[in-house]
Amino acid sequence: RVPGAVVDDLHRAGELPDPRVGRNSRAAEWVAERSWVYRRAVDLDAAAAAGVAGLEFDGIDPGADVYWDGELLGSVRGLYHRLRLPLDASRRGEGRHKLALRVHPAPDSEPQVGRTERVRVHTPRLGYGWDFSPRLRHQGVWKSARLRLSRALLGDVTVRTRLDATPSGDKMSP
């Protein structure tokens, strides 16, 4: 599922016992040491070739490589980084396409506060095992993902204001 987590997907598929019951989390510790692939078929009609198109990912933990029809489009590292990938017209012809994300293995890190000097990864540390929490490192597409097709696409928009201090009664400059 997207948004979701690899461990939850494996549990739903019957590959893992519920990691939130008893000591079942131990049966899931190996999951974070591997890469996982999310695949989806994408059907496009003739209208998709007009205008502009892009794939957008708001959060993939800990990162991923993105493939379209078997070709690497781009990568993202770090769960708090968004990824925007343009799809040029040659990649969005009519028919069925294959989207695939290779989610990276979860990096090693220190679990508890007190060893902060050893932390090299900006990620929530709770999943790395605390005295009250099992070691269950997160992986997956944890925020929204989408294909955008339009005549034009705007990226991030920033609004800036400026105040010109003028004496009362004078006209403000535009």
Taken as a percent bin, the fraction of beta residues is 25-35%
Structural class: mainly beta
* C-alpha end-to-end distance: 49 Å
Largest pleated sheet: 4 strands, antiparallel
Number of strands: 11
Number of helices: 1
Give the strand order of the largest sheet, numbering strands 1, 2, ... along the chain: 1-7-4-5
**Pattern of helices and strands:** HEEEEEEEEEEE
Overall average residue pLDDT? 87
Please provide a written account of the structure.
By secondary structure, the protein is mainly β. The chain is 4% helix and 33% strand. The protein contains 1 helix and 11 strands, in the order H-E-E-E-E-E-E-E-E-E-E-E. It has one helix at 6-12, and strands spanning 36-44, 52-57, 60-61, 63-68, 71-77, 83-86, 95-103, 128-130, 133-135, 140-141, 145-150. The protein has a 4-stranded antiparallel β-sheet, with no helix packed on it. A 3-stranded antiparallel β-sheet has the order 6-2-11, with no helix packed on it. The longest helix has 7 residues, at 6-12. The radius of gyration is 22 Å and the shape is flat. It starts with 5 loop residues before the first helix and ends in a 24-residue tail after the last strand. 20% of the residues are buried. The model has no long low-confidence stretch (mean pLDDT 87).
Observed structural traits:
four-stranded antiparallel beta sheet; flat; mainly beta; 11 strands; 174 residues
Topology readout:
Blueprint (H helix, E strand, L loop, with lengths): L5 H7 L23 E9 L7 E6 L2 E2 L1 E6 L2 E7 L5 E4 L8 E9 L24 E3 L2 E3 L4 E2 L3 E6 L24
Antiparallel strand pairs: 1-7, 2-6, 2-11, 3-10, 4-5, 4-7, 8-9
